[in-house]
Design goal:
The structure is a homodimer.
Chain A: H1 7-11, H2 13-16, E1 21-22, E2 29-34, H3 38-55, E3 60-64, E4 67-72, H4 82-94
Antiparallel strand pairs in A: 1-2, 2-4, 3-4
Helix pairs in contact in A: 3-4
């Protein structure tokens, strides 16, 4: 069982992950990304897929041509956990 | 400009693409796919990405672990066109 983020961790989310926003009506965070075209978006998706497998934690995500939306939440925890924070940080790091 | 499907083409959709359904409130078709795990789903997504680039026609799609949803519609036509039918057929062919 994975534990949900405690109050201290939640208080630090906005500062630690400034590009991610809380999802309305769900214990999750999301971020939108925009690229030059599908090719660039797909390259990014591939890199995130590698991160997801390495961390054994997978996003809910969608793509429409050059746009990507990623939502993170931990099914086993019933909401946000350290796994989401870790994956979000790794995704942000891809963008430099 | 790409032309929207005419009445004859639309009448043949259900028979030609039996796994795809019309989307409520939008001129589009969709299909859901389920795989053993993320790895298998991702392999499928990669193959569809190659089709999309080859046909210069891209899906609106989402993935949650072993589940994939693909929606097809043609932006330039403001709805369903031959491009969607072609891509749907190619996607179906991947699954044998």
């Amino acid at each position: 069982m994975v534990e949900r983020l405690d109050a201290t961790a939640r208080a630090g989310l906005a500062e630690g992950l400034p590009h991610w926003t809380l999802v309305e009506g769900r214990d999750a965070i999301r971020r939108e990304f925009r690229f030059r075209d599908f090719s660039e978006a797909w390259g990014f998706l591939c890199r995130v897929a590698l991160l997801a497998e390495a961390q054994d934690h997978h996003p809910e995500w969608s793509n429409v041509w050059n746009r990507v939306e990623i939502l993170l939440s931990t099914h086993d925890a019933g909401g946000l956990s350290e796994r989401d924070v870790r994956l979000a940080r790794s995704i942000d790091a891809l963008l430099g």
